[in-house]
Amino acid sequence: MTAWDLVRSGETWRLPIEQRSVSRCIVDHAFTLEFHVAEETVGVRIEGAFSVLDQGRIHGLTPTAPIKLGPALGLFDQVVRSATVSVRGKLDIAFEDGRVLTVEHDDDYEPWEIYGPGGMRAVCTPGGTVTVWQSVEAPGSRAPDMGNS
Question: CB count, 10 Å around CB of 19?
């Protein structure tokens, strides 16, 4: 197991970005948060609808409306307190300042994916199934599907 692998705990996976700060926000046909440590990068790419909870207000966002992504861009340089993915495909990233980014699963599309060093990748497929590939350095290069049950 490497420092960048996802760790399963019951009904959730913990993402390897806790205590890391957002080093880059990328807006293209998606919204991506990147976390850099030395020469390694972990990214959270969001292609579907998502929300940012900030001071009690929920901002509904989508990469297809980039002009409205201000609340998400404000996550730049913020430190992650916790980051999890549920077996149903829900992604939650909570930040030290109290903000929370949430992406629910989508019945028709892949709403998010996570990528990192050594081929580490997790993808939420349509319907909420999450598939995880651990880094090549980890024992067993691919973890099984998380499934919906």
Answer: 10
- Which residue's entry shows tokens 């019945």? 107
**C-alpha–C-alpha distance, residues 101 and 124, integer Å:** 16
Q: What span, in angstroms and rounded, lies between the C-alpha atoms of 130 and 124?
A: 4
Q: Decide: 136 and 118 in contact? Cβ < 8 Å.
A: yes
Determine, yes or no, domain membership for 138: no
Question: Can you give the pLDDT at residue 139?
Answer: 40
Residue 54 belongs to domain spanning: 7-133
Q: How many Cβ atoms sit within 10 Å of the Cβ of residue 22?
A: 23
pTM: 0.88
148 in any annotated domain? no
Q: How far apart are CA 126 and CA 108, in angstroms?
A: 5
**If 0-12 CB within 10 Å is exposed, 13-18 middle and 19+ buried, where does residue 20 land?**
middle
Residue 1 covered by a domain: no
What would the pLDDT profile of 11-57 be if each residue is shown by its tens digit? 999 998 999 999 999 999 999 999 998 889 999 999 999 999 999 99
Residue with tokens 């404000």: 74
